[in-house]
Amino acid sequence: MGDPFAPLIDLQKAGFGGFVSLNAAWLESLGDMGAEFMSFLAERVKEDVKTQHEILHCKDISEAQKIQGDFVQKAIEQYQVETGKLMELGMSAFKTEGGKTQ
């Protein structure tokens, strides 16, 4: 039986070693992005529950409108920040050890 790593060694010899490492970095980045997004979703659910609680306990319609307005503004800000984080994580998948984009 031959060496199970022979095909990978052959690819590296042929100059495809960068593709193998890029693929590993890309998969790791996907995992990081998934974890980040799940954390973000958990925070958003907490905000949703908090806002519903505040609305249920408000005294008048103007207070409810303020609560809703604050909720929307905060959601927009959080989604903008999260988009930036996910873009950075996505770009990191294509960086080499020297920090340059492949």
SSE blueprint and pairings:
Elements: H1 6-13, H2 17-56, H3 61-92
Helix pairs in contact: 2-3
- The N- to C-terminal Cα distance equals 36 Å
Shape: rod-shaped
Rg from alpha-carbon coordinates? 23 Å
Percentage beta strand: under 5%
Range of helix content: over 70%
Instruction: Outline the biggest β-sheet.
Output: none
Number of helices, where a helix is a run of at least 4 consecutive DSSP H or I residues = 3
| SS elements, strand count | 0
Number of domains: 1
Q: What is the structural class?
A: mainly alpha
Q: Which regions are unreliable across 5 or more consecutive residues at pLDDT < 50? A: none
Mean pLDDT: 84
What is the N-to-C succession of helices and strands?
Answer: HHH
Description:
There is one protein chain. This protein has 102 residues and is mainly α. It has one domain (18-92). The chain is 78% helix and 0% strand. The protein has 3 helices and no strands. It has helices at 6-13, 17-56, 61-92. Helix 2 (17-56) runs antiparallel to helix 3. The radius of gyration is 23 Å and the shape is rod-shaped. The protein starts with 5 loop residues before the first helix and ends in a 10-residue tail after the last helix. The mean pLDDT is 84.
